[in-house]
Amino acid sequence: MTEPATLQALFGGTFDPVHYGHLRPVETLAARLGLQKITLLPNNVPPHRPQPEASPAQRVKMLSLAIANNSLFDIDQRELQRQTPSWTIDTLIELRRERGEQQPLGFIIGQDSLLTLHKWHRWQELLDYCHLLVCKRPGYAENMATPEQQHWLDTHRTEDISRLHHFPAGSVFLADTLLLPISATEIRQRRRAGLSCDGMLPEAVINWINQQNLYPAQK
Ligand code: ATP
């Protein structure tokens, strides 16, 4: 009999641009859970929502610079190749089909995303396809906004790491990850104001942003 495969992790985001608030917490999560690989899934933003400033190709380029020489990460561009809005549920259904019914899958989100999860397309089905691995994010409430949402969380929450590795889906794990008060919005605003973003994202990404004159200062 073959051993059940261990947890494979996926991390979706706009990454406009990728920053240490994305990378560092998930690195600590990987160490805690024994993750071998985290697949970054840059997303397509639906046409009715404010569009990222960087193009899909630029966002992918920044991701590749950020993870160069770091074998923990790889990039899956499937959502950018779709013509339709990138609903996470559709990606998870596709990944589940590809990786098999028994493969444990973990979808990583920050605490802010957990608090608004009920607004995601078909959110109640997400746990049919994956576990949710939640990273802390400073400035966001610890509790869900309504008793119903809190009940949902309490029902699915686990602190048992072996469940994540031995069941294909179904649990929410609130991880004790590094708290980094960084957001892509703040980085774009600082660039616009001509302020330094040193230490907020990898130097190679900053250099490339400068070369491309992305998020330019406004006079
Ligand atoms: P923006 O400011 O443009 O909304 P963002 O910095 O929140 O962007 P996203 O690409 O939207 O970055 O985030 C992708 C995922 O990373 C989300 O699940 C989000 O919760 C998580 N995330 C982003 N920044 C942090 C952070 N500093 N700490 C923990 N999680 C984070």
Question: What can you tell me about this protein's structure?
Answer:
The mean pLDDT is 95. Strands 3-2-1-4-5-6 form a six-stranded parallel sheet. Helix content is 39%, strand content 13%. By secondary structure, the protein is an alpha/beta fold. Bound molecules: adenosine-5'-triphosphate (ATP). The site of adenosine-5'-triphosphate (ATP) has 18 residues, from helix 1, strand 4, helix 5 and helix 9.
Task: Please supply descriptive tags for the structure shown above.
39% helix; binds adenosine-5'-triphosphate; NadD/NMNAT; single chain; alpha/beta; nucleotidyltransferase; Rossmann fold; ATP-binding; 219 residues; 10 helices; 6-stranded parallel β-sheet; pyridine nucleotide biosynthesis; Rossmann-like_a/b/a_fold
Fold topology:
Layout: E1 8-13, H1 20-33, E2 38-42, H2 56-67, E3 73-75, H3 78-81, H4 88-99, E4 105-110, H5 111-115, H6 126-129, E5 131-135, H7 147-156, H8 161-166, E6 172-174, H9 184-192, H10 203-212
Parallel strand pairs: 1-2, 1-4, 2-3, 4-5, 5-6
Helix pairs in contact: 2-10
The structure holds adenosine-5'-triphosphate.
Overall number of domains: 1
Tell me the fraction of residues in β-strands, as a range: 5-15%
SSE class:
alpha/beta
Q: Total strand count, please? A: 6
Q: Please write the CATH class name.
A: Alpha Beta
